[in-house]
Design goal:
With 453 residues, this protein is mainly β. Helices cover 2% and strands 49% of the residues.
Length: 453
């Protein structure tokens, strides 16, 4: 987005490239003609495969200037620097033609970087001095932890992995997650008492956001296996037998199958409406376990100018909790009556997303900020939903929460969650100093000279 320096309404800037879904870390290039930024696919977990893109401020078409790298920064010596596999690379760059004019060369190692988010702890001054925090590329691979209300953490699965979106089976004995190997994301099932992890999907496409059916026999997930970048809903037997069945067929992404009604006849999910908006949808299911199930035609539960996400049925099926930006600014958690009318009742008071209902108590959990688990007690009076002021559910925070990763799930016993407990982002190394590299531009001219025509 861009906005006038004098204030005003933000507006779209540029456009997403083919297969792209995220743009981060913009830098206005000298002269005010263009902006440099990093761009990546909507589901990738490693920004080493991202692109550096330059978009003219005049409205011309954006173009890729470096393939494979992130956190690009222009240096007054006439170079772009960027991160790739933990190393800072430099490549000569022509500001007039807005393109590289030479070969890239490794310039520096030992800089703290975050390939999972595409960020790095470095900056370049207008005179060409580099400053950075020493460290390494911090992996997003983590174990899965148990976290309880008192803030105590214990190991649930010790092996590090690039996992996200954990969901417990109805009996709590298994945990479905999507796991990336850096190339593709698949759905896996972890039987935690036996420490057994089983792969459920194998397609080269992206498979994510697993959700158990109420009887625990199937898992619904979103996949772009039919068309890269466009997600639809599928399901498969939780034990890995049988074929994967497609449930929806839409040119717009059905990006998350979030929750089943306890009757097992309605699936609430999120449908994309362009790049910045989502609607809440309902997929009816016809048939039964004996005769088989047939998906019906999806219908709209809630559509508004705001972005609505992650619809979640209450245990009794009377309510749907969801996240919405209808109040402006940050997302908040709301509750509406199902099938309606009624509501919405706003639950969070300082931002919230990824609601989770407890099945053992009148309590609704959600994530506030970057990883604080909150909980609101509630009561139902007639057709009215009354929630108390949310309180911190656990003094320990969690990590990994992002638009594409709920980062936690509440166990059916209501006493613990599966999550990645907060750890220092530098793997235990204190970020207590910075390094200044003077005459950095002169150094770049020696290791990455401008190519002569």
């Amino acid at each position: 987005m861009r906005v006038s320096a004098a204030g005003g309404t933000p507006e779209d800037f540029g456009a997403l490239g083919p297969g792209a879904g995220r743009q981060r870390w913009p830098q206005a290039l000298p002269g005010g003609r263009a902006v440099l930024y990093s761009e990546h696919s909507p589901t990738a977990t490693n920004w080493d495969a991202a692109n550096l893109v330059v978009a003219p401020l005049s409205g011309g078409a954006p173009k890729v200037v470096v393939r494979g790298g992130y956190y690009g920064r222009y240096v007054p010596s006439g170079h772009l620097i960027y991160l790739y596999q933990g190393t800072v690379f430099a490549v000569p760059f022509d500001l007039t033609r807005l393109e590289t004019v030479g070969s890239a060369a490794p310039a520096l190692e030992g800089v703290t970087a975050f390939p999972a988010s595409g960020g790095a702890k470095l900056a370049v001054s207008s005179e060409g001095t580099l400053v950075y925090v020493p460290g390494t590329a911090v992996s997003a691979a983590r174990p899965i932890d148990w976290l309880t209300r008192d803030g105590k953490a214990a190991v649930l699965r010790a092996t590090n992995a690039l996992w996200s979106n954990p969901r417990f089976s109805p009996n709590g004995q298994k945990l479905a997650v999507d796991i990336s190997d850096g190339k593709q994301r698949d759905v896996w099932v972890y039987e935690w008492a036996r420490d057994t992890l089983t792969q459920l999907t194998f397609d080269p496409g992206e498979d994510r956001f697993p959700v158990w059916t109420p009887d625990g026999r199937r898992i619904v997930f979103a996949s772009d296996r039919a068309k890269a970048g466009t997600f639809n809903l599928y399901w498969a037997s939780a034990d890995g037998t049988g074929e994967v069945t497609r449930l929806t067929d839409s040119p717009e992404s059905h990006s998350q199958g979030s929750s089943w009604h306890p009757s097992a006849r309605i699936l609430a999910f999120q449908a994309g409406r362009g790049a910045t908006r989502g609607d809440l949808m309902l997929l009816p299911m016809e048939g039964d376990a004996t005769r088989g199930w047939t998906p019906g035609t999806p219908t709209v539960f809630l559509s508004s100018p705001a972005n609505e996400t992650t619809p979640t049925f209450s245990p009794d099926g009377r309510w749907i909790a969801y996240a919405s930006m209808e109040a402006g600014g940050a997302s908040d958690v709301y509750v509406r009556q199902f099938p309606g009318p009624g509501g919405p009742w706003r639950i969070s008071t300082a931002g919230g997303r990824f609601p989770r209902w407890s099945v053992t108590a009148p309590e609704l959990l959600f994530i506030e900020g970057q990883g604080t688990i909150m909980a609101a007690r509630y009561a139902v009076v007639g057709d009215s939903f009354r929630a108390d002021t949310p309180r911190i559910w656990s003094p320990a925070g969690i990590q990994g929460v992002a638009p594409g990763n709920a980062g936690y799930d509440l166990h059916p016993d209501g006493k613990r969650v599966a999550a990645a407990a907060v750890a220092d982002d530098s793997e235990g190394v204190a970020n207590d100093k910075v390094v200044f590299f003077f005459n950095f531009g002169e150094y770049l001219k020696k290791i990455a000279p401008v190519a002569r025509p």
